[in-house]
Model the fold of this input.
Amino acid sequence: MQRLPFEQQVFLLVQTLSLLGLAIRMWQSGLYRVYSYFFAYLLLALLQAGVLASVPFGSRQYVYAWMGTEGLITCTYVLVVLETYSLILRDLSGIATAARRYIRIMVLAAVLISLLMIVLDRNPATIYGFFLTCYRIVLSALLIIVLASLVFLVYYPIPLTRNVVFYSIGYSVYLLARAPALLIANYSHFEWFRQLDAVFTGVPTACLLFWFFTLNRNGEAKTVVVGHHWKPEDEKRILSHLQAINDSLFRSARK
Done:
């Protein structure tokens, strides 16, 4: 039975322990109720680790098992992004509703674009290549959406819980770590991808450890403002304008 290289086994073990530790911590602190989709991601990622550990590495069954479990996890990525916007915009329901609608449109457009690329490709498409193309485009769309949320937070002085801030920052870095691995997988041989996979596993593991040490029950009670430090009169004007936009969108959604 072929095994992963030793350094990849170490990264995978640390990542699995980090997933397990974070899931237990969120359960004990009750944060799984607030970040339910993120908690679902942790459970699915643990399930994936268990499934892949039982399949011979490098076999066709391993590839199919990875695609099946990663497809489910990608669905949770979308739900986590929607959850992130709901938490950031919890006091701006009109903007939150519009944001969730545009996120769904962007994800659907990403899937349609990936299908179009497959249809227009002259080379015969394999299931693995088709999956990676869809995976890369969908995650790229989600990364743009998450980075847009960070730009929004940097500009607008909106008070947020400390957990939401750490949650958003960690998830942005987490998605950024996926992009290089996907590019390598799409434009190089699978063997090279396996050799470099340990490097790209390290960043998501670091994000899991970051969440483990920063997300806690007290973080739901403490609020911070990460936006630009405006003068009091400018801040009041900007927030008033933002609230006006929210009210307008809220009225439009109710029609």
